[in-house]
Amino acid sequence: MTKFGSVEEYLASFPADVRRVLEEVRETIRAAAPDATETIAYDMPTYRLEGRTLVHFAGWKRYVSVYPLPDPAADAGLEADLAAYRATRGTGRFPLDRPLPLEMIARVVRALRAERFGDAGV
Question: What is the pLDDT of residue 44?
Answer without folding.
Answer: 96
